[in-house]
Amino acid sequence: MRLQNKIAVVTGGATGIGAATAMMYAREGAKVVIADVNESDGTATVQSIEEKGGTAKFVRTDVSQEPDVAALVEAVQESFGRLDVLVTCAGILLGAAIRIDQFEADAWDKVIRVNLRGTFLCTKHAVPLMEKSGGGVIVLIASGAGVTGPSASVAYGASKGGVRGLGFTLKHQVDPLNIRVHVVCPGNLNTPLKLRAIAEIAERGGESPEAAVAAARSSLFSPEVVAKALTDLASDAGANAEDLVFTK
User: Fold this and answer.
1) Is 156 a catalytic residue?
2) What are the phi and psi torsion angles at 179 (to 5°)?
């Protein structure tokens, strides 16, 4: 198993890419800590991992709140004594298809706090424990939106472009600590975030949200596609991977 005895934190691990990644990491031998505000789905993901013989723990965490993130890393240290992998999947999308002059500042702030500030805070608090552990791997989840093309939401696109910028700088800062950094840009995935955005756009256009979601499902890829890439990056083989990884 490629991640045997690795300690991994997956933020946003209750659903979508995060849940798929947490389950795949556990199958590859990692002990996984799922950090999310979604307690019901997070607990269900932990249960699913344990039923298959894996090791997992849920820690309720609002990644936009520094005390929550500090408590998360402290819980990891107390439970496992080390941290080998951090994957920052936690993210939200608000204001799909809303023009910038009509975009609410509160919605902008919420997206930036979770997607960009949350990524910053998780990395900030993870790095010292990784350094004590002798190194590790940080995988930042950005998006094709805001990196190679536009987003349905001005705030989401800006936040993911910011994550990419953070990755540029972070990589060089932590390389001397034996910490690898990868930025992954997924797209067109069958996740709750994507489906909600599709439904929201349809509703604003006067169309049926249910019909739009149903029509889109056949063209969307499974989150397991990204989970596989994230597993490769967290393994020793990931040392030879490009800094920026694009997935379908």
Assistant:
1) yes
2) -115, 120
- Going from the N-terminus, what domains does the chain have, and what CATH number goes with each? 7-189+221-246 (3.40.50.720)
Which residue is it, tokens 């995988």? 139
200 or 87: which leads in pLDDT:
87
Evaluate if pTM is beyond 0.85: yes
Report the interhelical angle of 154-174 vs 105-112 (nearest 10°): 30
Q: Is 78 helix (H, G, I), strand (E, B) or coil?
A: helix
The C-alpha atoms of residue 165 and residue 114 are separated, in whole angstroms, by 16
- Only one residue has tokens 């609002």, namely 62
Closest CA to 244 of 187, 184, 163: 184
Closest to 248 in 3D by CA, of 144, 134, 125, 93? 144
**Hunting for tokens 């349905």 — which residue is that?**
152
Catalytic pick among 80, 108, 120, 156: 156
User: pLDDT for 64-80, tens place per residue?
Assistant: 999 999 999 999 999 99
Q: Are 83 and 136 in contact (CB under 8 A)?
A: yes
Beta-bridge mates of residue 183: 140, 244
